[in-house]
Amino acid sequence: MASILKTDKIEGVTSSGTVQMPAGHVVQMINGRVSDDRATTASTSFTQLGDTLSITPKFSTSKIFMIAVTNTELTGANAAYFDFGRTTGGTTTQNISGASNGITTIFQKAWGTTTYTFLDSPSTTSAVAYFCSVKVSAGTLYFNDNSANNFTNFTLMEIAQ
Known about the structure:
Elements: E1 26-35, E2 39-41, E3 47-55, E4 63-74, E5 80-88, E6 91-93, E7 104-106, E8 112-120, E9 128-136, E10 141-143, E11 152-159
Antiparallel strand pairs: 1-11, 2-10, 3-9, 4-8, 4-10, 4-11, 5-6, 5-7, 5-9
């Protein structure tokens, strides 16, 4: 015989009010636009694109899954490299993947959508501010072509481990 547990709300026993979820479950999700304005970069070093989106992990063992979607155009026969950055405890890291050329590369020369993802292990329960980070090999990279639905969207998900 199967058991059924019905409830309207689950609360933690301790004052923290948190309940440990099984591994792989989404603990919380935050979504927002980090850039609406048309912007450009010609930087050959990783630099921040748009604003930050912050999350405060409920568990220090959690991973943060990030998804960024931006509208871009690249001039010339060049490459653009995308990554994520974070600021936690006063320390900022521009490309958290650690890969010299980031986690996504584009060569497009017409407006198009660039989507990139990364799984981070911040090992903290303090607030972490994440942002999109980008550099080019040469030329100029344009973001957000000012049409109605072109903006940089960013999603953070805390995943229980």
